[in-house]
Every structure is written in C-alpha cells, then in structure tokens.
Amino acid sequence: MTPRKPLYVLITLITALAGGGIFVLLHLPLPWLLGPMIAVLIGSNLRKQVYTWPGQIRNTGMIIVGYTIGLSLTGSALNQIAFQLPSMLLMTTLLLLFCAGIAVIVSKISGTNYKTILLGSIPGGLTQMLVLAEESEDINLTVVTVIQVVRLMMIIICVPLLIYSPLFPSHAGGGENTPLMVESAAGWGGLFPNILYFGVACTVSGIVGQKINFPTAYLLGPAIITAILQISGLQGPALPDILINAAQLMIGVYVGLLLDPRKLNNKLLTLSLAVGSGAVLIAGAYGLSLLFAYLDSVSSATALLSLAPGGMDQMSLIAHEVGADLPTVAGYQLFRTFFIFFAVPPLFKLIFRGKKSKTATIS
C-alpha cells in the first residue's frame, strides 16, 4: 500500500457519504447505493488519481448482502422457488435470446464484430464475461467492459426510477414479511451471539468460494451458507438499517469506479452503443416482466426485479427497499447467474468454434 492510499480511500469515502447525503435530502430512491455511485463516478473522472476503493471493502458489502439474501431463503421460500423452475428456465432463455437479437442489430450498426457485442450484451457477472472475453479470439475487451458496466449502471439507476413511476401503481411487492423487512427489535444487542457464528461462516464461505472460482463467491457463498444454517435451526438475526446502508455504499462506490470513459478510443460511438443497447434491454426486461407477472401472479415490482439484467446484489437491495418478494427476486437472479455461468461459456465457444471451422472449410 502506498503512503497516500489511506488518504485516497478517505477522500473516496467522504465523496460517497456526500453523494448519499444529497440523495437522502432529495428523497431519491436507493440513496446509499445510487448516491455514492454517482458522486464517485463524477469525482473519479475529474480527479482519477485521488480515488481508490480496495476490493476487500466491496467484498465486505457483498458478504453483508449475501447474508441478508440467505435470511430470506427459508425452507418454504426454497420450496416455492423449486415450483418456479420451469418458469425460471423459460424467462431466462427468452431474456438471453432477446440479448442475442440486440447484439445482432448493434453489431451491424456499429461494424463491431458480433462476438464482442454479444459478450457485452449478455447479462452475466462482469468478471465472468471479462474472463470469457479474455479467453476468446477477436474480442475487443474494452468495448465488452464498457457495455457491461454501462448496462449495469443504467439498470441500477433506471429500474428504481421505473418502479417508482406511474407504470407501477404500488411500490409494495408482497415481500413485507421477508427477514430483510423486519427490524431488529432488540437493536444491536439482538445480533449477538448468533451473528458471530453467521459472520465467520459467511466470511469463510466467501473466501473459499473465491478460491475455487465460484460465481460471485462473496455474494452466493454467504447466501447459501446462511440458508443452510437457518434450515438447520440456527436463527439469523436481522441487521440494523445502518449496516444495510453501509453495504450499499461499499458496493455503490465500487461500481462507480469501474467506468472510465477516458480509456475509450471512440468514446461517443461506444458509449452511444452501450446506452442504446442498455435501454432496449431494459425495455425488453420490462416487457417480459409483464408476461411473468401475468403467468405467475406476482407483483409488477417483483417481476421486473426478478428479470432485470443487473447483479443479484443490486436487485436484491432494490427489492428490499421497495418491499418486493425477495425470495422470488433472489431465486430468479440466482438461477440466471448459474445458468449463464455454466451454460453460456461452453455454448459460446461451441457455436463460434463451429462457425470458425465452417468458414475455414469453405475458404
């Protein structure tokens, strides 16, 4: 660590707190996720050299969110998710086909090769898509990164605004009784001693998951181990709001620092493509959410958050804020994460390897 790094972390933290405070004063949605994210994005693009955010802090936020997701994955909630597996497969497949269609159009308009646009459009984890891009030939890694990050940021910003718009008559999504929505009646004292057991288990599961290349390990590891411990009979205490807000800030700052437009060669074209494809993808997710809400009789907010092509941590935090059905949202996001992680990379390599062999044979 350089001598000035603690100072830079402090500057980043102060900027994030200022952004969150402004969002609170303006009564904007998700103030401690969106406020820090936007404030740090602006600040870092003005003075990039004085902003930094250690990955360990972001991972801590992910562990907290993973724990809260695990609290909602009770035995009854998991049974409910199991009954929805056919619907999950249908909706995930439709969403991925829609993404593939968007990639075809954007590729033809921009002149960028289809493989690059496709990897930028698939709503998987950012790290996973970048690893796949690095392992593939003829991929513009910068374009993939920018499209993925811009899409994620648009979803984090636009989905809450959409849910709070007149298109959604009620903000409540039927998840009022999920553990995230329950205040800890005993305050901080009510956390102990059980929070110590869960804290150690969640941290270890995140670290081990990362070492074995588990997808979004610092989120899914704690979520899974928390659910297992709860089903085994150990009751997990609900976290105070200040810890949930802190987790949002930790993640929001990290996302805000991901995007650096100065690294793009053709900024206007790439950003325009990223914003355009992101907007179409959000519109498509909204259309699919209407179908989902009709078929499964869930609230419109729950349907949109379940299908929104963002990260499970951000969508779960938004579900918490608007009172959506968190087990359903987490279940759909979790299913898509695993589906993309296990099914997309081999399919991607198989399809394009086949196309490459066919082209070589013809030539």
UniProtKB/TrEMBL annotation:
Pfam family, one: AbrB
Keywords: Membrane, Transmembrane, Transmembrane helix
GO cellular component: membrane
One of the GO BP terms on file: regulation of gene expression
Chain segments annotated as transmembrane: 7-26, 32-50, 62-82, 88-106, 139-165, 185-209, 216-236, 242-259, 271-295, 334-352
The protein, known as: AbrB family transcriptional regulator
Provenance organism: Paenibacillus borealis
